[in-house]
Structure formats: C-alpha cells, structure tokens
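User: My instructor asked us to take a sequence, write out its structure as tokens, and then describe one feature of it. I'm not sure where to start. Here is the sequence I was given:
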Amino acid sequence: MSIKKEILNQLLDKYESSAHFKNEAKVNRRIMMDLKLPLYNIESPTQKRAVHMVLEELRRKKLVKVLWLERNHIAKQVQLNLDNVEQAYKEINRQDKRTALDRVRELCVPQDEDPDWLRGFMDHVSTFVDTKFKVPALIPSCPEDQQYLLIVLRAIAQLDGEEVLERIFSKRHLRDSKYFENRLRAKTARVLSRFKLKTKDLTPDQILQEAGLFRSSDELLFTGPISIEINNQTIDFTPLKYGTAIGARTVKELQIVDLNADTVITIENKASYREYCNQMGSKTLALYLAGFPGPMKKLFLRKLYDHAQQYCLNVKFLHWGDIDFGGFKIFRTLRDVVPAIEPHLMDVETLLRHREQCQELSKGYGKLLMGLLENHEYEEFHNVIEVMLRENIRLEQEGIL
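Assistant: Let's start with the prediction itself. The structure tokens for your sequence are:
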C-alpha cells in the first residue's frame, strides 16, 4: 500500500468510527494519527523524505494538517481536515461510507408485494445502518452485489412453489448462469435461514431447496400402491415395489386417481428409504424427502392428504427422520402441509435403544435444542429433547437397525 493510502485510510477509519461521522460530536475533536514505525522511520532519510513529500502534497490539497516537532524535519502527527473529507475519499478512490450507507438504506425500502420475511430482513438492515452506522454482514460489500441480492430475494419470494435450477435462476435474473453461485449463494442462504425459516441448523443446500432452488434436477422418489393421471393417461405404480421416480415438476400436472394405502410415510434419508422399501407392507406408500422438503414435495404431500381426506379417511401420515434439531424442524415443516402427520421412530425409546449408534452433541447444539423446549409447536418432542440434553446424544436415521 502506498504511503498516501496508508495515511488517509488510517485517518478515514478513525473518522468513520468517530462522533463526527455519526453527527453526535459535541466538541470539535480532532481526527489524527501519530506518525511512527513502520510507516515513518526517522532513522531512514529516504523513507522519512518520502513521507514528508506525501504530507506536503496532502497539505497543499487541504486534506490534512501536519504537526511538527521540528519544522520540515520531524513530523509528529497528521490531522484530517474535516471540511474536506469527501475529497479525501476521492484522493485514494475509497468508497465514501456515508454514501454507501445511504445506498443500502435506499435499497432496503419495502415494496407492496414483499412478504413479511423479506420486510423483516429489510427492517433489520435499515435499523442496523441507522444505529450502528455500518453495513450488516448479511449484505455484500460490493454495490452491484447489494443490488443483485435484493433482486434475488424478491425473485425467490415470487417463485410461488416453482422449483428452479440455480444456474437457470441466475441466468434469468442476473444475466449470468454462475453469478448467483459464485457471489450471492452464501448470503442468500443466510438471509433465508434467519428471516424466512428462522433456523440455524440447516445446510445452505437445504435452505435453498426449501425456497425452490436446486443445484441439480430434483426427482420425486416414492414406492407404494398409488395411481395417478397425467396428460389424460392413468399410471398405476403399485407393481413397482422397489420404487420409482418422477420429475418434480410433474407434480403440478398430476392428479391422484387412487391411493390404496393405509399408511403414507415420509423418510428423511435415502439409505433409510431404500431399506424401508425392501421390507414395508403392501399397504404403505413411502416418499423420500432428501432432507428439507422443497415446494414440489410439499405439493405432492398436500395432494395425497387432500385425496385421503376425501376418499380414504383411515390413512395414517407418518414422518421418520433423524432424532436431532434438523429432524424436528423438518417435521414441523411437514405438519404445516399435513396437519395429521405424526412422528415415527423419533421418540425416547428409539433413541435409547440405539444408544451405541448415537453421536455426541456438538458445541452450541444444546442451545438450539433448548430453544425448541421453549416452543409449544415442538411439544411432542419435548420428552426426547430432554433426554438428548441429559445424555448429550443425538441419533441419525441410519443408526436405527
């Protein structure tokens, strides 16, 4: 870094954290820095002369004032000229922080069609900027990325159950198929996790899938006695006892013709789904979730539930997932789709019976579980959560024999 940039950057850093920047200064305090090693070495005539030349240039441009121990021989301090701060930013091509904050504030103005979670995010950003005088970590530092992040969030809010490949989504909204993945994916997932899903224990893939964005083409895997109609043709999947797959987008077009099952079960992990299919009864329909369900899997479940409510009221809906924070969150999401769904093999007895397959809780994990104990929506899991905390264990599906 050049001597000029080093001096002005240090002074502007001090200015941006001062009461002057926040317009709260009650006295005219100086913004200054001491000149010392390694920047200023009075034992090195060459280095000292170089610093003096820069100081003289900045003084002539009325950007700083210099305090000397010995006039033109030893400089003690350099002081920022508060009447010419804007020019100091321009001198080193540094972004004016006040302008940057105003731009972020202007970006985060809610529109009529914005959902509550997006409004909550924008309110958070505006409040953070107004009270802390800096941009929150959820917002990219690059102005172009800031603008594109809001475009992405609004586009996600308008997906309305559609599932889109990330690169197609990126090309559609950002004119570059890799821009979202390379520059905005992580920030987008954090925003959705905090303000839309309100959870901390899902991977970026799971978070974005719930929103409708997939890295690769998503398929719907299921097994059981079901017939569907699509394009005026009826297809009976009952003979395919080891399972089948259809494109997730097909779900929008299909109609359920017959459900000859007494149990519908969703299964979180693929290995457990495959094993379950090998031994389940002929009256069971099993659906592989692949973790957090995306919009199409939710739609398929809703169609199953609505059909059962109308034609076969005795059908039980079950969910089998990990006995951990993520498994409980997935179950809650499913219950919002199918109110009658119940947990399967997610209880205290199952946890303790397979204790040798359990994993210890990681640092901070207990706090997440404690949060669920305070939430009545997870009341049916409170007993098993208390045991998990007491024994310091959790159990993945694959550990259940």
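For the description part of your assignment, you could build on this observation: The longest strand covers residues 64-70. Try explaining in your own words what that tells you about the chain.
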